[in-house]
Specification:
Aminopeptidase, nine-stranded mixed β-sheet, binds manganese (II) ion, binds (2S)-amino(hydroxy)ethanoic acid, Alpha-Beta Plaits, four-stranded antiparallel β-sheet
Amino acid sequence: MTQAFSSLRINADRMLDSFNQLALIGGTADSGVDRPSFSEAHLAARAWLRRHIEANGFEFRTDGAGNHSAILSCDDSSAPTLILGSHLDSVPNGGRFDGALGVMAALEVLKTVRENGIKLKVQLEAMDFTDEEGTLVGLLGSAALAGHLSKENLEKPRGGRERLLEGMARAGLSDVSMLSAARKRETLAGYLELHIEQGKRLERSGTDIGIVTAIVGIWSYKLSFIGKADHAGSTTMEDRRDASLGASAFALAAREMVMRDFPNSVVNVGKMDFVPGAFNIVPAQVDAALEFRSPDDEEFKRLDKALLELARSEAARFGLELQTEFLGKHLPSLMDADVRGAFVDSCDVLGLSHMPLPSGAGHDGQSLADLCPVGMIFVPSVDGASHSPREFTKWEDCVNGANVLLQAALRLGNG
Ligand code: HGY
Ligand code: MN
Ligand code: MN
């Protein structure tokens, strides 16, 4: 059956049209998007998606986590579901391809399968997962669907409990609904995602498609360096307990330590909030958003210990107190070998070059990897840019990725 459909292709113009419509929602002047989870722009994008799904004659579904999906049922109502998807939420002032391309390509696959009257042995579901980016929690919708979400995750989210409650209220969701979204593993046939690479390896090697081998794990903390507010003019330099010094020294030292001792890992201090935060007050407190990533569980434990020890020593160096708050973790996960094989076969049928790639970015697939077979493909990012309005992928590469997604879905959906 799949051989018969090897010449099938998605409708590139139709996908471009829906992609461009979506990119306007929360679009920024420099052709990026600003759609943080449950912001007005993100809610507008979700509403647009629902209208688009229903206008195209698909059954629309949503769950207690606010995941939105289009359903293309097969003849056997008891058959499991193959989910294709990604996410519509973005980082603040991000790019228009991260997540959105995967959702539009997933929908385009359902449209192409239906209009060609193809009968698979699985239900197909095109999915937009809630809060993939972690503005609120991170991989929120996929973790909820997988049954991995805990009350703790919701009580201590990395975006702050207040923001999460406000966001959920805007979307008509709650802790209770979030925790009700889990699906049974036997209902899932697998999960496939097309995503931009967000790095330079495909572009540098001139390769069309990256076939993801593994997705890194991600741990998050809030580190509070606590000193003493004082007059910025009349307090001598020796007398200051300046919280900014500990936070800044930690950020520099963490980078050096990871580059020296943890070559497979990365560390990021993505935000520092100064309190009280004024020109003429010695900073009393600096809250730092610490995130670190590794492909290896064992390395995480060593890295976690080393970073916290470093934070304590840098705080002590400047006479500061240190408070740490653990804000969750996502485990590293391996992609499924059979799914990777289906992607390889699909690239070969399409005459597209491909290479195996580990993912330094987190993705919803890592929530589902212990529940069902999961696989991802990447398409090249120009200059590796992402999480920035500079994010760009050539449309022919987007179309290549969507065709590989289609061919793999036909292979895996045909049992
Ligand atoms: O942060 C990430 O790795 C992904 O873009 N959510
Ligand atoms: Mn993404
Ligand atoms: Mn992202």
